[in-house]
Amino acid sequence: MRVIDYKTAQAGHLVDCRHSATLFNLMNVNAQCPRCNVFLDGNILQYRRALIALYSEEEVNELEDKATEIKQFTIPELEELKVDFTQKIKELLKEGK
Q1: Is residue 28 within 8 Å of residue 44, measured between CB atoms?
Q2: 3-class secondary-structure state, position 11
Q3: How far apart are CA 19 and CA 73, in angstroms?
Q4: Where are the domains of the chain?
């Protein structure tokens, strides 16, 4: 892992989450440089190794397993997620990150 400029950072994903239960899983989305995210197609091997170092192999395996689960979010679930993410943003802004 390395530090990258937030102005050029992109949202990298270990697993495709467009229709899966991992769509709003914060473990699945992390800052990636454009080179890794676009030109190296996510640089998945290094991405996975970094996630294992941050979390554990067991948690990464669980994330990968959840990627096959189709999830249709309800309006109340989405509203709750909006509240949760809004709070996280406020906390990060307060911390100066």
Answers
A1: no
A2: strand
A3: 10
A4: 10-71
